[in-house]
Amino acid sequence: MTGGPAGGEPRQAGPAPAPVPEPRPDPVEEYRDAVRGREVSLVDLLDRLLGTGVVVSGSLTLGIAGVDLVRVDLRALLSSVHDGVPSPWRGGGPL
Question: How far apart are CA 2 and CA 8, in angstroms?
Answer without folding.
Answer: 8
